[in-house]
Write a structure and sequence with these properties.
This protein is an all-alpha fold. It has one domain. It is 78% helix and 0% strand. It contains three helices and no strands. Helix 1 packs across helix 3 and helix 2 runs antiparallel to helix 3.
Length: 78
C-alpha cells in the first residue's frame, strides 16, 4: 500500500508530465501555419469527450479543459 507521501510524489510526477505535454502540444500547434482551424479544434474536442466517456470522466469538465488547452496552444501564435 502506498503512503500519502508516495501518492503525493506520484501526483507530482504526473503533473510535471502534464505540463511538459501541454508545452509540447503548444509547440506542435505553433508549427502549423495559421494554427489549428476551428473544425480541427472541434474534432479534437470530440476526441477528448470520447476519451472521457471511455474512462468514465466527466464530459463537461473535459470539454472545459479541452477548451482551455486549445486556448493555451492558440496563444503561442497570437
Amino acid at each position: 500500500m502506498m503512503t500519502a507521501e508516495d501518492i503525493l510524489a506520484a501526483l507530482e510526477k504526473i503533473d510535471q508530465q502534464l505540463v511538459r505535454l501541454f508545452a509540447e502540444r503548444r509547440e506542435l500547434v505553433g508549427q502549423i501555419p495559421g494554427g489549428l482551424s476551428v473544425d480541427q479544434e472541434l474534432e479534437i474536442m470530440s476526441l477528448w469527450i470520447d476519451e472521457a466517456v471511455e474512462r468514465e470522466l466527466d464530459e463537461a469538465t473535459m470539454e472545459k479543459m479541452g477548451k482551455l488547452i486549445n486556448q493555451l496552444c492558440r496563444r503561442r501564435g497570437e
